[in-house]
Specification:
Blueprint: H1 2-8, H2 10-20, E1 22-24, E2 27-29, H3 32-44, H4 74-84, H5 91-94, H6 114-119, H7 125-145, E3 149-152, E4 156-157, E5 162-163, E6 167-171, E7 175-179
Antiparallel strand pairs: 1-2, 3-6, 4-5, 6-7
Length: 191
């Protein structure tokens, strides 16, 4: 009899309805998925989290964190995790909460964030270019192994101007691929 009363009590039903939806940081939520979505949206509009909004579209990029790989030293792994979490030291990070601290890059004067250092700053141009060339070399090598004839940095005249892609790969009688690598920052829309 008590079980029936508890399960069918009007009072219990009213209490359930009262707590079925709560306000969390200015948004009405009714389950933990909605709370998670709210927290993710708040993170994605911050300096540290804006690049993470696209990560869920490519889940394989996260596997190295937990796959037990032996390819990195402990120190290298910690540095990789710091880069992944956008928690390496930068002038921008160091200036948070310190109004007298200058958040600008000492090389070019822009706001110094990890994204700025890795993608924009003149100080890291040579390393960025090296990373780009390494990627192009790897892709052209795989294309050659797949039977393609690869032409590196050909000059292609067009009515507008001369185009110079990183590579053109030709599989005789079948297809051609024009390859121009771009390594983008973490805030590019992947969809």
């Amino acid at each position: 009899m008590l079980e029936w009363y508890v399960a069918n009590s009007v009072t219990l039903q009213k209490e359930h309805e009262k707590w079925a939806k709560v306000e969390y940081r200015g948004t009405v939520v009714s389950n933990t998925k909605q709370v998670d979505a709210k927290l993710a949206n708040e993170l994605h509009i911050t300096q540290d989290g804006y690049g993470l909004s696209q990560h869920r579209l490519v889940p394989k990029i996260h596997s190295w964190v937990t796959d037990g790989t032996q390819l990195q030293t402990g120190n290298g792994y910690i540095g990789s995790v710091q880069i992944r979490n956008n928690s390496l030291y930068t002038e921008g990070r160091a200036s948070r909460g310190r109004p007298l601290r200058n958040p600008k890059c000492t090389m070019c004067g822009d706001y110094e964030s990890l994204g700025h250092i890795l993608q924009n700053c003149a100080r890291t141009w040579a390393v960025r270019n090296q990373r780009h060339n390494y990627l192009v070399d790897k892709v052209t090598q795989k294309l050659k192994e797949s039977g393609y004839e690869v032409h590196t940095e050909p000059r292609i005249p067009t009515p507008a101007e001369i185009r110079k892609p990183d590579a053109v790969a030709i599989l005789t009688g079948c297809s051609a691929v024009i390859f121009d690598a771009t390594i983008v920052s973490d805030n590019v829309n992947l969809s």
